[in-house]
Amino acid sequence: VTMYGATGIGKTSLLQAGVFPILRKEGYIPIIVRPSTIDNDDDKSFAEIVVTKIETEITDIRSIGIELNNDLDYLWQYFATRRFYNDGNEVFPLIILDQVEENFFLNKEKTSYFLEQLYSLNNDNKIFPEGYHDETNFRFLISIREDALYCLEDCIDQFYLEDLKKNRYRLTCPD
Question: Is 140 exposed, middle or buried, given 0-12, 13-18 or 19+ CB atoms closer than 10 A?
Fold first, then answer.
């Protein structure tokens, strides 16, 4: 899902105050990630930053113990080989990529590759090796300023990531 709106309209506040409590009741664990604000070295991909954040927020993660390849399928391998639990109940991480526009301004190439990795999660033609599961046990939400939406659009068009154009919501002020 992509949510966009004017600067300061309250995208993050709406999520934290209105949406997150509802999602928690449904078994989702909202995790806000702002890769642009995380002090990281150039060798760490945005996908690795997301995984680190998930593993910080959810302490009971059960893995089949395979080593991940740091490639286009990195996130797909991560989610297909793990299940997430909280107090013994299976939960589902909802990763909110907040203020994504900053990522485009700071490192467009790295951000574009990350979006390709997200897109790879939607590939229905993947072969699941033994131990992998094919359930969708995660969600992603991209939050971006409306005046920077063109950055996301350009990346989608350049790398043919058309599915990222589905499920968009514009946040506006009531008249």
Answer: middle
Cα 138 to Cα 38: distance, rounded to the nearest angstrom: 22
Q: Which of 89, 10, 11 is nearest to 1 (CA)?
A: 11
pLDDT recorded at residue 42: 62
Beta bridge partners of 63: 82
Cα–Cα distance between 139 and 96 in angstroms, integer? 8
In angstroms, the Cα distances linking 69 to 61, 72, 75, 93, 110 are 19, 9, 9, 21, 17
Q: What is the mean pLDDT of residues 21-34?
A: 93
Q: Concatenate the DSSP letters of all residues of 62-99 into one string.
A: EE--PPPPSSTTHHHHHHHTEEEEETTEEEEEEEEETT
Residue 95 pLDDT: 94
